[in-house]
Design brief:
With 217 residues, the chain is an alpha+beta fold. Helices cover 46% and strands 24% of the residues.
Length: 217
């Protein structure tokens, strides 16, 4: 519940490089086309304040374009929205989500709040750290709700099993009580009476099954 929380948006995460000097702030990240997303690692590199390239793990440029603050950068079935003004040489790493403890998320946020934010770059790093922490906390809340639903379903199964077991136990106790409190004299008399009735019925059937119209001709 607390240690296996997916980072980022649960599918992939975008992390600004610690050496960034611009004011590029990470916004929403989404999977726009699951069929096109290959789960690979990419890097969004700014070659100029208004130009970027997306490079895969093999160093191949898979996308490029003109950067506009607040406009999503799309590639490989996913997109990331950036605002502010990145500097030439700034980069943002894109990688599949990994597991992270919610305690680590909170600690990272605490560490970021203690950093110097007197410069635009420092303030940008704080904003990105807060965004990352909020995403991590959202994922932790989703994980908690999912596990609560799972535990609730298991408790319902246990409750149902207990009810069935109680019913079976009651039926068994009733059967045992019926056998232990049997009036043998009355049972024998009832059995003899039923045997007599059965014998009479069998005899009547034996006498009537041989009757035929030809016997009267």
């Amino acid at each position: 519940m607390f240690n296996q929380i997916k980072t980022g948006n649960g599918t992939f995460e975008v992390t600004p490089a610690s050496s960034n000097t611009g004011t590029g702030i990470l916004g929403a990240t989404t999977v726009t086309d699951p069929a096109s997303y290959d789960g690979g690692s990419y890097s969004i590199n700014f070659t100029a304040p208004n130009a970027y390239q997306v490079v895969n793990s093999g160093g191949t440029v898979v996308s490029s374009g003109t950067y506009t603050s607040g406009q999503a950068i799309s590639f490989a079935g996913i997109q990331a929205t950036l605002s502010g003004q990145p500097a030439a040489g700034d980069s943002f790493a894109v990688a599949p989500s990994s597991n992270q403890s919610v305690f680590t998320t909170v600690q990272n946020l605490a560490n970021a709040l203690q950093q110097n934010t007197a410069t635009p770059a420092g303030e940008t790093q704080l904003n990105n750290a807060v965004t990352s922490a909020i995403n991590g906390i959202d994922q932790a809340l989703d994980q908690t709700q999912t596990l609560q639903a799972s535990v609730g379903a298991r408790l319902n199964t246990i409750t149902t099993s207990q009810a069935v077991s109680t019913t079976q136990q009651t039926q068994l106790q009733t059967s045992i009580s019926s056998l232990q409190s049997l009036d043998y004299a009355s049972a024998v008399t009832s059995l003899d009476s039923e045997n007599t009735t059965l014998s009479a019925a069998m005899e009547a059937y034996t006498q009537t099954q041989g009757l035929s119209l030809f016997k009267y001709l």
